[in-house]
Amino acid sequence: MNNNRLCQMLGIRYPIIAGGMNWVSNAELAAGVSNAGGLGVVVPSAGLPPSGGDPVENLRQHIRKAKQLTDKPIGVNIPLDRKAAKSYAEVAVAEGVSVAIGSAGNPALYTGMLKNAGIKVLHVVASVKHARHAEAVGVDAVVAEGYEAGGHNGLDELTTFVLVPQVADAVKIPVVAAGGIADVRGFLAALLLGADGVQMGTRFLATTECIAHQKLKEAVVNAPDTGTVIVMRKLGVTRSIKTGMTQKYLEAEAKGASIEELKALRYGRARMGLLEGDMEEGDASCGAIAGLIKDIVSAEGVINRIMGDIPQALNKLNGKLNIGGKY
Amino acid sequence: MNNNRLCQMLGIRYPIIAGGMNWVSNAELAAGVSNAGGLGVVVPSAGLPPSGGDPVENLRQHIRKAKQLTDKPIGVNIPLDRKAAKSYAEVAVAEGVSVAIGSAGNPALYTGMLKNAGIKVLHVVASVKHARHAEAVGVDAVVAEGYEAGGHNGLDELTTFVLVPQVADAVKIPVVAAGGIADVRGFLAALLLGADGVQMGTRFLATTECIAHQKLKEAVVNAPDTGTVIVMRKLGVTRSIKTGMTQKYLEAEAKGASIEELKALRYGRARMGLLEGDMEEGDASCGAIAGLIKDIVSAEGVINRIMGDIPQALNKLNGKLNIGGKY
Q: What domains lie within chain B, and their CATH numbers?
């Protein structure tokens, strides 16, 4: 018996979803997360070669491989701002995934089509307004993603701490908290703030199954609390691990570089950072919680550690609340 | 018997501190918070007239008045970047406050002097490095303040969600979480993230005792989730409630205005916003959690509500964790 409504909805044991990470969220990582009781996801760009390749066909192959590696539910991330978004949704339907998580676009686009195919639809939001809209167009649950998250963030810069309770108050559907979560403390704090479950990206980046380059994984493990930075504030708000490239970018931005100059510095660097591990010239989206991550373990290790640490974390909380018989 | 180490250290019943708010943290609000079991604080600029006045003497009078209004501990906020900082510390010693909370400067300056007078010294930090430094120079506890907070924030933009657990891991002294907290969910989430207690500013701004202008209190109550914004990104990072002035400022910033032009737009506007309630021309520091605040109540009401809501919040958490017999 599992009373968590997100777990019930998605058919998973633990309310932990792997955040879709461009280039790196592949079949092996997804299966690792799902086999451990969470929800693993694959992305269209997973492991694509420098030459590009066909992300639609790539998505199909990663779904198929993930389904070979686990009999548990698998999800896909659909970046709705891409030209191929509809094709991604069609692949999700054709290959029979359990969950589709939309982001960076209008949730009205393919929610009906996906739901008609029996797929649960989640949508990533960064404000109350967008959460209400997602619910209104039939999305099954929202992922409330704070400013702490790696990659593209909302322009309003609402953090996990302020976004989650306000989204939880605004919608009736389940809420998944994302951004800044990497251990049992963040997991439980997110649930207390009003979420039904969590989505973690960066914690799953530093796992053995992840195809991110070893140098990037080590950079995450070695990152201090100040190890990430916002680039592209004028071109959207994107959080990356600090590299030689982000330093150059911020210096150019401070000197008043044009949008074209900034684009030239930043665009086309993600594969270099994520898959080639070039921490000088490359760019790698990374959450602000990198500083808390101290080891590279399996996806199962990540999930089991969080679940195993719950009793001790609750005991600590109760000790702090022992403030005079009654509150 | 109170087992919370922050409560033990400060001699208070509940681990809730009122954040020092320039212009508005006066004797009545401080006494209201302390009488309700938290720690109230006064600031040198509380209620000063447009002509300025003497903030040192003003601080002394507010301490004296607060001590007339409560027999519980009272704190002072010492902005360490001000010329009069040493005088503020001397007033704290002379008037015998219980707690001094330093911010925006070097904690080494007056910690020894204050501690020799039997005053507990807290210091506001926004990164692990500064937390470690504060502990090393003898501070009794750190206030880990996230990017959500109103007023001046750290340049690294570390949010409450990522800052608190990393500071808690880095120091042995008690940690107070600040930024984004306004209800029982934030209170408990902060404790779970590793804090021993919380500091709240904006929630106490919207109280009956607070001398902030009624128009500002109403603006807080009516603020949506996106109701605050960062101004002065080039001059420090300051969070304010959105006003006509912040709109003009951001437009000027986007057009590439000079630092001098930006200063002219922003400086000298705080009293107008906070005490005169001018939501067009004034500026008012305000936390990102304003959107969660829906009413103006007494300071005691704020504290009693949080404490009273704890059992229900923990029950909700336990329900979400009922995920299959064991985790």
A: 10-211 (3.20.20.70), 214-288 (no CATH)
Contact call for A147 and B159, based on CB within 8 A: yes
Q: What is the edge-to-edge ordering of all strands in the sheet holding B120-125?
A: B16-18, B197-200, B175-178, B141-145, B120-125, B99-103, B74-79, B40-42
Task: Determine whether the interchain pair A226/B193 forms a contact, defined as Cβ–Cβ distance below 8 Å.
Answer: no
H-helix or E-strand containing A213?
A: none
Give the closest-approach CA distance of B186 to chain A in angstroms: 6
The model's pTM: 0.97
Which CB contacts under 8 angstroms, 24+ apart, belong to B5-8?
A: B5/B174, B5/B196, B6/B141, B6/B174, B6/B176, B6/B196, B6/B197, B7/A323, B7/B197
CA atoms B271, B275, B280, B285: torsion sign: positive
CA pair distance A16, A158, nearest whole angstrom: 22
Interface test with A, best of B166, B225, B321 (most A CBs within 10 A): B225
Contact A18, A40 (CB under 8 A): yes
Residue numbers in chain A where pLDDT is lower than 50: 325-327
Within 10 Å of residue B251's Cβ, how many Cβ atoms?
A: 11
User: Can you name the residues that pair with B285 across neighbouring β-strands?
Assistant: B240
Structure tokens at B224: 């949506």
Which chain B residues contact residue A313 at CB under 8 A?
A: 192
Q: Do A158 and B288 touch (CB under 8 A)?
A: yes
CA distances from B51 to A267, B57, B83, B133, B270 (A): 53, 15, 18, 38, 14
CB contact under 8 A, A288 and B230: no
Question: What pLDDT, on a 0 to 100 scale, did the predictor assign at position A204?
Answer: 98
pLDDT bucket at B326, cuts 50 / 70 / 90? very low
- Residue length of chain B: 327
Using pLDDT thresholds of 50, 70 and 90, give the confidence band for residue B233: confident
pLDDT on residue A121: 98
Q: Measured between beta carbons, which residues in chain A are less than 8 angstroms from residue B259?
A: none
Integer angstrom CA distances of residue B92 from B8, B44, B116, B197 = 21, 11, 12, 23
Query: Which residue from B13, B129, B322 is facing A323, i.e. has the nearest CB?
Result: B13
- Tokens 């009205």 — which residue? A108
Q: CB of B160 within 8 A of CB of B183?
A: no
Cα B108 → chain centroid:
21
Note whether A156 contacts B127, CB cutoff 8 Å. no
Nearest chain A Cα distance for residue B122, angstroms: 19
B190-217: average pLDDT: 98
**Residue A292, CA distances (Å) to A44, A144, A225, B29, B196 in order:** 29, 21, 7, 37, 19
CA dist., res. B320 & res. A6, Å (int): 9
Chain A residues in contact with B179 (beta carbon < 8 A)? 161
DSSP symbols for B139-188: -SEEEEE-TTSSEEE-TT---HHHHHHHHHHH-SS-EEEESS--SHHHHH
Q: Convert the pLDDT of each residue in B248-263 to its tens digit.
A: 999 998 888 888 999 8
Q: How many CB atoms lie within 10 A of CB A254?
A: 9
CB contact under 8 A, B292 and A165: yes
Rounded to an integer, what distance in angstroms lies between the CA atom of residue A238 and that of residue B317? 32
Angle at the Cα of B198 (from B194 to B199), degrees rounded to 5?
140
Contact predicate A101/A134, CB 8 Å = no
